[in-house]
């Protein structure tokens, strides 16, 4: 299967679509009374009053989530190939993206983090363009606005502001205007939100939006380790990919090296941002899938022993299915 997706063959579109629904067999088998979908944060509903909490039946919810994942996988695949992050263009980024979004049951339903992945992929594309444009102030401003819109959908997406500064350190020489542009873009979105709150004579509620920023990072976690055994194959592939990346690191283009460094920091920031939401859910970690999928794709794109990488991927898929059903 890996060998098939190493090629840019149009037939892979159909195979990817079939694979997307195959990886969701377990959740289609489940009986759900109701699946809620909070499209926006409560503080944004005053601005955009869209109530989708009970708009879809469980089966429709799961089906739409699968379709969105498939669309995201294709966009993500295009971004990775356009920026030459892998040895050669392929459908492996899309394959790894679909696999990553199938690791846990909560990943397979409509959620704010799933919607924000569209914005995250867009942000990744713009970050990777930073080193290729002579004047990136407009690009950084756009990134700030995208992050602001994402924050209206899912508050922890705000943590991506940190990535603006890290990306500028990696891709650009210091220019204070670029550093300020990202913040101005983000603030612009919330400036209009504040004006709307003021117009509704509810400015005191606007200040409550920022209360999660005062949360202390949790020091104790309640984790059922059996729920996360499926991550063992992921960890093995990531370790193999890291060793391979280290071996090829200084033989890669400078832009490729910086791209992987940026994605590594994005993975960390996306994972750690859960503390901004006291009642976060497992689907929060969907934000880690795009940067993580690139590393998984890198390994399978560069692996040489076919029997080994095909077997490894098969075991990976079987382990995901096993833990989803069990």
TrEMBL record:
Q: Which domain of life is it from?
A: Bacteria
In terms of Pfam families, this protein maps to:
DUF6427
Q: Which GO terms describe its molecular function?
A: monooxygenase activity
Annotated membrane-spanning segments are 12-29, 62-80, 92-123, 143-171, 178-199, 228-246, 258-276, 282-300, 307-325
Name the InterPro entries on file: DUF6427
- Is Membrane included in the keywords of this UniProt record? yes
Q: What positions belong to coiled-coil segments?
A: none
**Keywords for this entry?**
Membrane, Monooxygenase, Oxidoreductase, Transmembrane, Transmembrane helix
Q: Protein name, please?
A: Beta-carotene 15,15'-monooxygenase
Q: What's the source species for this entry?
A: Pedobacter frigidisoli
């Amino acid at each position: 299967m890996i060998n098939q997706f190493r090629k840019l063959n149009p037939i892979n579109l159909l195979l990817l679509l079939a694979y997307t629904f195959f990886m969701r067999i377990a959740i289609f088998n489940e009986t759900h009374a109701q699946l809620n979908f909070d499209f926006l944060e409560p503080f944004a509903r005053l601005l955009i009053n869209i109530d989708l909490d009970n708009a879809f039946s469980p089966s429709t919810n799961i089906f739409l989530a699968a379709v969105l994942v498939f669309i995201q996988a294709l966009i993500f695949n295009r971004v990775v190939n356009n920026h030459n992050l892998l040895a050669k263009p392929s459908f492996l980024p899309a394959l790894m993206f679909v696999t990553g979004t199938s690791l846990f049951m909560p990943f397979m339903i409509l959620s704010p983090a799933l919607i924000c992945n569209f914005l995250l992929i867009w942000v990744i594309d713009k970050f990777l363009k930073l080193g290729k444009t002579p004047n990136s102030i407009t690009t950084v401003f756009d990134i700030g606005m995208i992050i602001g819109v994402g924050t209206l959908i899912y508050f922890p997406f705000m943590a991506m502001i940190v990535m603006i500064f890290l990306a500028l350190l990696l891709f650009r020489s210091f220019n204070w205007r670029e550093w300020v542009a990202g913040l101005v873009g983000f603030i612009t979105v919330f400036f209009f939100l504040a004006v709307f709150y003021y117009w509704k004579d509810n400015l005191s509620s606007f200040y409550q939006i920022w209360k999660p920023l005062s949360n202390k990072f949790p020091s104790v976690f309640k984790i059922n380790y059996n729920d996360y055994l499926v991550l063992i194959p992921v960890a093995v592939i990531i370790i193999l990919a890291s060793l391979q990346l280290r071996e090829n690191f200084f033989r890669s283009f400078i832009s490729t090296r910086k791209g992987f460094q940026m994605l590594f920091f994005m993975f960390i920031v996306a994972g750690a941002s859960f503390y901004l939401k006291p009642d976060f859910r497992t689907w929060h970690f969907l934000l880690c899938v795009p940067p993580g999928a690139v590393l998984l794709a890198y390994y399978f794109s560069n692996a040489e022993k076919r029997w080994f990488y095909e077997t490894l991927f098969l075991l990976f898929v079987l382990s995901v299915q096993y833990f989803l059903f069990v």
